[in-house]
Amino acid sequence: EAADMVLLDDNFATIVAATEEGRTIYDNIRKFIRYTLSSNTGELFVMLVAPFIGMPLPLIPIQILWINLVTDGVPGLALAVEKAEHGIMERKPVPPNEGIFSRGLGMDILWVGILMGIVSLGVGWWGYQMGYDTTVWRTMVFTTLTIAQMGNALAIRATHDSLWEIGLFSNRLMVVAVVVTFLLQLALVYVPFLQSIFDTVALTGIQLAVSLVVSLTVLIAVELVKWLRRRREVSA
Asked: Does pLDDT of 1 surpass 60?
């Protein structure tokens, strides 16, 4: 009979290392799924709800394409190289029949996605009520949603620990991905050539500040939920 596991180096420590690596890969797959699907949920919320509150189209197709290819893709790939979380070997084994959306992953995707949609559409609604031109408030929605997704990517690097505990720069590829995506988003907003392609317009300092500050709601909310879960685990 063939063994389930073969030790090529005759060292039982290899089993521990292999188990840790396997758990890390599984965690990172779940993080990638959580990030991608929550981002898509946010986009879907924005597009579906806007007509019901009397707003014109909040995002145009090329802006959605940009979000799906760049904003979702680049930080998502950085999540694949996230290091093992603290205490990963102290967890109970994952049941073989466990679904990928188990342990609250599906609910996390849903509430984070809806929150991203609310804050992004909320900024657009504010601009719409302020009488801004459609291109202006649409650019604000576009920017807010993009930055909110960056905050989400940073926050979900760890399922239990806070971003500050694992270290902001412990995954340098993620930092590079977030910074590059942010700079590219600014280019889309302020470079005339790109404005004509993505139907954006240069935002004023106040408009950009509103988009940035409101988008931080997602990062703060995800970190707050993790903190509450840690408190609950300690008191249990």
From this structure: no
